[in-house]
């Protein structure tokens, strides 16, 4: 028997030359109780019982190493994922309130919480740079201020129309003055 198969966790590994198996024993990669066979199908017998190997005395007292593998092992670097930044709850609340401005009926009450929460979130993200959500807070404030500006322009426009109509209606019953 010039070559032997070694048991690698229930699978045959090899074939290995007898001299290499002796080196495995010397380097404590296998123990004398490790199973070996002349063919991959078996029968499997311990290296000690085969009687072909000269065993060093210290080899039997060492603990059994992990099963050997005929394929060289490759070291793989495990990359730790970058921890995600926590998003400010105030910024999320401000952005939700800013979006609710576009729903008729609740638009008149959501602009104020959007402004308050947005400014609080900006201050919070400024004090704690590890906290995310600054973009949400800025977006909430932009949306709210733009909607408020459009609303103020619309109210001013309607007031001008109403004042103009009332002025025109009030002067209808009076005679027109002649300049001379």
Could you characterize what this model shows?
This protein has 180 residues and is α+β, with helices and mostly antiparallel strands. Helix content is 46%, strand content 10%. It contains 5 helices and 4 strands; from the N terminus they run ββαββαααα. Strands 2-1-3-4 form a 4-stranded antiparallel sheet. Helix 3 runs parallel beside helix 5 (134-170). The N and C termini lie far apart (138 Å).
Features of the shown structure:
alpha+beta, Dna Ligase, domain 1, 4-stranded antiparallel beta sheet, 5 helices, 4 strands, 10% strand
Q: Could you provide a short overview of the structure?
A:
This protein has 180 residues and is an alpha+beta fold. It is 46% helix and 10% strand.
Order of strands, main sheet, comes to: 2-1-3-4
Shape: rod-shaped
Beta-sheet strand percentage? 5-15%
Head-to-tail CA distance between termini: 138 Å
How many independent structural domains? 2
- Tell me the major beta sheet: 4 strands, antiparallel
H/E order of the elements?
A: EEHEEHHHH
Mean of pLDDT: 80
């Amino acid at each position: 028997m010039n070559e032997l198969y070694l048991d690698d966790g229930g699978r045959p590994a090899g074939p290995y030359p007898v001299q290499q198996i002796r080196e495995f024993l010397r380097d404590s990669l296998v123990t004398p109780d490790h199973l070996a066979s002349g063919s991959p199908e078996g029968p499997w017998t311990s290296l000690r019982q085969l009687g072909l190997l000269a065993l060093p005395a210290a080899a039997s007292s060492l603990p059994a190493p992990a099963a050997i593998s005929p394929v060289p092992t490759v070291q793989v670097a495990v990359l730790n994922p970058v921890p995600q930044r926590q998003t400010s709850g105030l910024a999320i609340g401000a952005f939700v309130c800013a979006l609710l401005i576009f729903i008729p009926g609740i638009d008149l009450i959501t602009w104020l919480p959007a402004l308050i929460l947005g400014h609080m979130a900006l201050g919070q993200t400024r004090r704690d740079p590890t906290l995310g959500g600054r973009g949400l807070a800025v977006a909430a404030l932009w949306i709210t201020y733009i909607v408020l500006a459009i609303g103020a322009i619309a109210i001013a426009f309607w007031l001008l129309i109403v004042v103009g109509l009332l002025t025109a209606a009030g002067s209808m019953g009076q005679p027109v003055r002649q300049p001379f």
